[in-house]
Each structure stands twice: as C-alpha cells, then as structure tokens.
Write a structure and sequence with these properties.
mainly alpha, 58% helix, elongated, 17 helices
C-alpha cells in the first residue's frame, strides 16, 4: 500500500493527529488592475508669522565674524595678559635655576646659632681683684719679661721641687735662691697686672694654625712656677703674700682673655683664671680663703664670677671645635665671620677660610670663601686683614703639611 509522503513545502501532520492545514496562498493581482496606494494626509500650512520669521535675515550681533585667509586670529586682551605672565614666569624660573646651577650660593650654618654670636665676657673683674686695672702701657711687655726670667730659672725650680716631693709635699723647704728668683718674677707680673691693656698678638704672628707659641709657655712655665711660690707662702702661713701672688696671676689671665686677638691666648687666659679661683688642687683662692679666718666671706664673692667664667669658656670651647676640626662646616665659618660680635672668632674664622678653599665639597662655598678673603684682606682692623691674607696665601702643600686642624 502506498504511503502518503508530504510534498516539499507542505506542512507535516499537526501534533495530536488530524489532517494537515494547508498554507494560505497569495492571491495574484488581476491583470489590468493596479494595487491601491494609501494617500498621506494633506500638509497643514504654517501661519504667515512663522514663515516670515523663518525668512528673517540674522541680526548684526548674530552674524559670524568673517575669517580672512592668511591673517592670524586675534586673541582677546585677557588671554594676551595671561600668556605674557606665563611667559615671564617660565623665563624667571629658568633664569633662577640657571643661576643656582652655574653660580650656587654658600651653605647654611649647621651648628652655630644666632645666640652664639653674642660677646660673652665674664665679670665684673672687680669682684675678684677689688678694682679693674687702669695703668698705662702694654702689660704684654711685663708678662713677656717675666716669662723670660721664668725660663731662665726653670731648671732650678724643677730641682728644688724634687726636695719638696722628698719632704712629703712641704713647700717651705724650697731653696732660698729659688724663692728670690720667683719673687722677682712676681714683681714683673705685678707691674703688668696694674695696666689696663695687653697687646701681645701682632698681625705678623697670625698664620694658619690654632696654636700661638707664647701661650703654651705662659701656662706651662710661668704660671706653674708661680703657683709654687704661692704654695710656699701658704705653707709658711703668709696668707697675705700668697693672695698677692694668686691675684697677680689671675689678672694676667684676665688680660689674656680680654685681648680677643688669638683664640688660644683667650682660652688659656680663661683656664688660668679658673685655676686661680677654684680648680687648682695645690693652691687656689678658694682654698686660701677657706683656711684664712678673716677672709672666709670672700669665697662666696668669687662664685658669681666663677660661674660666668665657666659658661663663657664652655661656649668658647664649642666654637673652637666647630672651627678647628677635620671638616669645618662652611656655613658656620661664614656666619661667624659676618655676624660674630667677638673679634677673636672673626679672626679665627678668617684663618679657617684657608681650609675651606681646599676642602669644601660645594663650588658655592669655595667661591664665597674667596670672596670673603678678598673683602677682608683690606679691612681696617690689622688683625682681621692679616688673618684673611694668611688664608689667601696658604698653599695646598702648606695646608697638607699643617694638617686639617692647623697643628
């Protein structure tokens, strides 16, 4: 029995059975007839006012500005000013950076503060010696003469000191000849102590070094030998003579401190005063007044001066370390040269410029060091001018041989 196979395009059986529904066929258009085209609704005409507005020519302020070919556009005035300011800023910043790179400035201070630039001198000295010296002449002449005498008898003093050691420290056993020589030296010191001023350092003495030859001799020979005389009087209960020797030495130290010409002279002068006041265990004014019944009140009178002396020396030692070190900070040196009210630090800092011109890492510091040397080499103060000249003339070989600390 033949099977009914649906033809291509016909639909298969409907789900659930039943006869298939034939697909509707499109009806052909009869010949001679045209398909009807639907008509659009007629346009509604716009009112006359709207038509007139649409044809209205643009107002003058609405017309675009014609652009001429080959002519650059003109910026508004506000923009011109802005461009000018911006250009000036760019040029200014560029010039600033160029100057900083090509001509760098000096370094800033590191350790030296503004407060450290003030002049600090202990006082008043009248609290210790009764009245400030007022005599005429140069005390350095008398002190130098006393030093020469002390050098001449130094070996005799040392030999006689051995007898003191053998006696258990009794200074009254000193040889009489040695005592007479020490008294003559004390007379020279007393003559200098009566004078108002001391000028020991000469411009030609200044060189790239922190040392001053006579300073060592004053403290290690003259001062030490005269303490032996003071202790001799103390052991013999001659307190008045002991006090005179000590006050003469104290005044010599005061003169050295007040010259303000060379750092080592000043610092050694402070040390001599401290030793005479309280610090020396062999003999000092404090020890004398504690033993001398009628002068015990004097011990308290010395305390104010001793306290101010201690503070001044402490700060002076700091400034010395900032200058005479392996690598001094250029900014610290420049600040002391230009702002310190204490002459010794200006002079000492000018000498340090000899170090900086060789050791500074920054070009700006080297340039500024040379500038200061050139300025101060003609200074009215002969010591400042001499210090600048010494730094200027320092050679690299001299710098290396003296050491960075000017030994």
């Amino acid at each position: 029995m033949a099977q009914n196979i649906p033809s291509r395009g016909s639909q298969g059986p409907r789900p659930g059975g039943g006869r298939p529904v034939p697909k509707p066929q499109a009806q052909p258009t009869p010949v001679g007839k045209e398909r009807a085209i639907p008509k659009l609704p007629p346009k509604t005409p716009r009112p006359a006012a709207q038509q007139k507005a649409a044809r209205r020519p643009p107002e003058e302020d609405e017309k675009p500005t014609p652009v001429e070919l080959g002519v650059p556009l003109k910026a508004p005035l506000g923009n011109k000013v802005g461009y000018l300011i911006a250009g000036l800023l760019v040029v200014g910043i560029g010039a600033f950076l160029t100057i900083k790179l090509v001509f760098p400035g000096p370094s800033d201070p590191v350790n030296v503060t503004q407060a450290m630039l003030e002049l600090k001198i202990p006082g008043p000295v009248a609290a210790v010696i009764g009245s400030e010296p007022s005599g005429s002449g140069n005390a350095a002449d008398d002190y130098t003469a006393a030093l020469q005498l002390s050098k001449a008898c130094n070996q005799d003093v040392q030999n006689s000191s051995e007898k003191v050691a053998q006696s258990g420290g009794r200074f009254e056993v000193l040889d009489d000849a040695v005592v007479q020589k020490l008294k003559a030296i004390d007379d020279k010191i007393a003559a200098g102590a009566a004078k108002a001023k001391m000028d020991m350092v000469k411009p030609e003495d200044l060189a790239y070094t922190q040392n001053f030859p006579l300073a060592d001799d004053f403290i290690n020979i003259l001062f030490v030998n005269q303490l032996i005389l003071a202790r001799y009087y103390f052991d013999k209960k001659d307190f008045a003579s002991c006090e005179k020797v000590l006050l003469h030495l104290f005044t010599m130290g005061w003169h050295m401190m007040n010259e303000r010409a060379k750092m080592q002279i000043t610092l050694f002068g402070m040390s001599i005063q401290q030793q005479v006041l309280t610090a020396n265990p062999t003999i000092c004014l404090t020890k004398l007044y504690q033993t001398w019944p009628t002068k015990q009140a004097r011990e308290k009178e010395l305390q104010a001066y001793d306290s101010s002396l201690f503070s001044a020396k402490l700060e002076a030692d700091k400034k010395r370390q900032y200058l005479w070190c392996t690598t001094p900070k250029p900014g610290d040196v420049f600040r002391m040269i230009e702002g310190d009210k204490d002459k010794i630090w200006v002079v000492e800092s000018l000498l340090i410029l000899g170090n900086i011109k060789f050791s500074a890492a920054e070009r700006g510091d080297i340039r500024y060091a040379n500038k200061l040397m050139d300025e101060f080499i003609n200074d009215k103060d002969p010591l400042k001018a001499a210090a600048a000249k010494a730094a200027k003339n320092l050679t690299l070989d001299e710098y290396k041989s003296s050491g960075t600390m000017g030994q």
